[in-house]
Model the fold of this input.
Amino acid sequence: MSDLDRYLTEHDRRIHDELFDLLRIPSVSARSEHAADVRRAAEWVRDSLARVGFEASTNETPGHPIVLAEWRNAPGAPTVLVYGHYDVQPAEPLDLWLSPPFEPTLRDGRIYARGSVDDKGQLFLHMKALEAHLAVRGKLPVNVIVLAEGEEEVGSENLERFIEANAKRLAADAVVISDSSMFGPGQPSILSSLRGLAYFQIDVVGPTVDLHSGSYGGAVVNPATALARIIATFHDANGHVAIPGFYDAVRDWGNDARAAIRELPFDEQGFRHETGAPALGGEVGYSTLERIWTRPTCELNGLLSGYTGEGAKTVLPSKAMAKVSCRLVPDQSPEDIGRLMDAHVQRVAPSGVTVTVQHLHGGRPWRAELEGPVFEAARRALGAAFGKEPVVVGEGGSIPVVGDFQRILGTPVLLMGFGLPGENAHAPNEWMSDENFVKGAKAVAAFWDELPASRSQLSAK
Ligand code: BES
Ligand code: MN
Ligand code: MN
Done:
């Protein structure tokens, strides 16, 4: 056992107590009534890093604060930026939680709490790996910047500007992020791609008030029907997105990457079972993993219109609304997809109603260059901590800042997540595997030792 592993094992109890303190803070970034809690979580992260030897601050934005912590006492050594987010998704519906979302509970080797895996547990295991180095050896082998934001779950609206404004200070040789999942239990994984996002709200307005559907129905265009007709034009019968131009910028994934996906031991029945859906379905001509990792989508996230209460009410609704998000793959951009969506919706909108499209937020898709010393270091550290070679996997979710790091800082980004499939991120009963939390901290601690000692070695391929 290494000196770092021993430290982490000896302090396991306190480390868990601290994690649970962080998980108790309801830092729900989407809800204004939680703004003070979000700030409290930022200050908690700042103070925790300051206690172990980082120069740490909270930085104001028009939204929630950004935590920046630096340790720069390794002259000549590379600089690595660790990113994570301390905000969480809303916990509703509360009645479906078996234990309250902000009262962390360890059951059956699982840490149950909102934010346990997404992303507080994963951010915190990085903080403890850094602490292990500083406590045991009094130093880190490289210079480290920790950047923790409080707006990831609401689209990272203010982070891009912060990175641009502080590009010099944030200059790094590599970025490391743990905010994703492993391919399966015991199987460490390195991410090779993330999808981007373009999020829309479509509003359809007809008559000024709800109307009697007998007295007016048939003579006034029904906004709910109009919206349904618009939405129905988004896909063809084969599950392809039918918005003209939607696939124009899609870069071919490449035969090697496709073959690598086919070789992964994917349990399709287990995946279906996890969803509870009676069958899987999607774009014709692609496997399930290809559909999630390599293909763009146009997904309906929410629908609202008319009478939905008990019993029947004969009414012609005055308006209808839909939330729609497109997941994007390289080289689609949220701006281009926004323009295509606007044009398409206006083209297919029935007359007799007013249709508007709002652009809520977006993020760029990302694909990794999986070579160089940073990835080799991650392979070795993950392999040692989990006793198994890591696999390279794609991801269907989005972390908007990743594309920004690559674009603004010109830095390679390494994503090694310690979540697991089925951990209910964004859903009731979110959990993080305690084994992954513990092994993740050890893997990350070892990762720092595996990095080359000098900048020139790190940038060499
Ligand atoms: N950690 C997730 C991204 C993710 C999801 C990684 C699933 C791996 C597996 C992140 O917190 C997230 O939820 N992202 C949002 C982005 C959005 C709010 C802009 C997403 O993917 O919906
Ligand atoms: Mn996350
Ligand atoms: Mn999330």
User: Anything to note?
Assistant: The chain has a mean pLDDT of 97. The radius of gyration is 24 Å.
